[in-house]
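Work Package 4 report. The design task specified in the project plan requires that, given a folded chain encoded as C-alpha coordinates, an amino acid be chosen for each position. We show below one input record used in the internal validation round.
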Protein backbone atom coordinates (compact mmCIF):
# COMPACT_ATOMS: atom_id res chain seq x y z
CA UNK A 1 0.00 0.00 0.00
CA UNK A 2 1.38 3.38 -0.94
CA UNK A 3 1.98 6.07 1.65
CA UNK A 4 -0.60 8.55 0.22
CA UNK A 5 -3.23 5.81 0.22
CA UNK A 6 -2.46 5.06 3.88
CA UNK A 7 -2.97 8.74 4.73
CA UNK A 8 -6.31 8.76 2.94
CA UNK A 9 -7.45 5.63 4.78
CA UNK A 10 -6.36 6.99 8.17
CA UNK A 11 -8.13 10.29 7.49
CA UNK A 12 -11.30 8.44 6.48
CA UNK A 13 -11.23 6.30 9.63
CA UNK A 14 -10.67 9.34 11.85
CA UNK A 15 -13.51 11.17 10.12
CA UNK A 16 -15.85 8.23 10.65
CA UNK A 17 -14.88 8.02 14.31
CA UNK A 18 -15.54 11.73 14.79
CA UNK A 19 -18.91 11.48 13.06
CA UNK A 20 -19.97 8.55 15.22
CA UNK A 21 -19.28 10.66 18.33
CA UNK A 22 -21.52 13.49 17.13
CA UNK A 23 -24.21 14.67 19.52
CA UNK A 24 -27.78 13.52 19.09
CA UNK A 25 -29.95 16.65 19.26
CA UNK A 26 -33.22 14.69 19.59
CA UNK A 27 -31.79 12.72 22.51
CA UNK A 28 -30.56 15.99 24.04
CA UNK A 29 -34.03 17.51 23.74
CA UNK A 30 -35.63 14.40 25.26
CA UNK A 31 -33.20 14.46 28.20
CA UNK A 32 -33.78 18.21 28.64
CA UNK A 33 -37.54 17.54 28.87
CA UNK A 34 -36.95 14.74 31.35
CA UNK A 35 -34.30 16.29 33.61
CA UNK A 36 -33.65 19.99 32.99
CA UNK A 37 -36.82 21.68 31.77
CA UNK A 38 -38.40 22.27 35.19
CA UNK A 39 -35.66 24.69 36.23
CA UNK A 40 -33.88 25.80 33.05
CA UNK A 41 -36.74 25.66 30.55
CA UNK A 42 -36.86 23.50 27.45
CA UNK A 43 -34.92 26.08 25.43
CA UNK A 44 -32.49 26.79 28.28
CA UNK A 45 -33.90 30.26 28.93
CA UNK A 46 -35.61 29.99 32.28
CA UNK A 47 -37.96 32.80 33.20
CA UNK A 48 -36.87 32.41 36.83
CA UNK A 49 -33.80 34.51 37.62
CA UNK A 50 -32.59 31.94 40.18
CA UNK A 51 -31.69 29.47 37.41
CA UNK A 52 -28.89 30.10 34.90
CA UNK A 53 -29.75 30.55 31.25
CA UNK A 54 -28.24 27.77 29.17
CA UNK A 55 -29.55 28.61 25.70
CA UNK A 56 -26.74 29.61 23.34
CA UNK A 57 -24.00 28.82 25.85
CA UNK A 58 -20.82 27.18 24.52
CA UNK A 59 -21.18 23.38 24.42
CA UNK A 60 -17.68 22.87 25.88
CA UNK A 61 -18.60 25.00 28.88
CA UNK A 62 -21.93 23.21 29.41
CA UNK A 63 -20.32 19.79 29.14
CA UNK A 64 -17.53 20.69 31.56
CA UNK A 65 -19.99 22.16 34.05
CA UNK A 66 -22.11 19.00 33.99
CA UNK A 67 -19.06 16.73 34.31
CA UNK A 68 -17.79 18.85 37.21
CA UNK A 69 -21.17 18.70 38.99
CA UNK A 70 -21.19 14.93 38.47
CA UNK A 71 -17.66 14.47 39.84
CA UNK A 72 -18.10 16.92 42.71
CA UNK A 73 -15.43 19.30 41.38
CA UNK A 74 -18.17 21.92 41.14
CA UNK A 75 -20.35 22.17 44.23
CA UNK A 76 -24.13 22.39 44.10
CA UNK A 77 -26.21 19.73 45.82
CA UNK A 78 -29.16 20.07 43.44
CA UNK A 79 -27.09 19.95 40.27
CA UNK A 80 -24.93 17.12 41.62
CA UNK A 81 -28.05 15.02 42.01
CA UNK A 82 -29.24 15.67 38.48
CA UNK A 83 -25.82 15.45 36.82
CA UNK A 84 -25.09 12.24 38.71
CA UNK A 85 -27.76 10.47 36.66
CA UNK A 86 -26.30 11.54 33.30
CA UNK A 87 -24.07 9.37 31.14
CA UNK A 88 -21.18 10.93 29.20
CA UNK A 89 -23.36 10.61 26.07
CA UNK A 90 -26.26 12.38 27.82
CA UNK A 91 -23.92 15.22 28.80
CA UNK A 92 -22.69 15.63 25.22
CA UNK A 93 -26.23 15.56 23.85
CA UNK A 94 -27.51 18.08 26.41
CA UNK A 95 -24.57 20.41 25.87
CA UNK A 96 -25.08 20.37 22.10
CA UNK A 97 -28.85 20.79 22.41
CA UNK A 98 -28.72 23.78 24.75
CA UNK A 99 -25.85 25.37 22.80
CA UNK A 100 -28.04 25.26 19.67
CA UNK A 101 -30.90 27.13 21.37
CA UNK A 102 -31.17 30.90 20.94
CA UNK A 103 -29.73 32.88 23.83
CA UNK A 104 -31.90 35.36 25.72
CA UNK A 105 -30.12 38.18 27.47
CA UNK A 106 -31.74 39.72 30.52
CA UNK A 107 -30.51 42.80 32.31
CA UNK A 108 -31.18 42.91 36.06
CA UNK A 109 -31.90 46.33 37.50
Amino acid sequence: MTRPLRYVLVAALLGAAAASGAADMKAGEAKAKEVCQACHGLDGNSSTPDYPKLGGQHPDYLGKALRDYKSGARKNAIMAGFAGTLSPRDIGNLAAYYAAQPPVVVVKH
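The two ends are 68 Å apart (CA to CA). Validation will be extended to a larger panel in the next phase.
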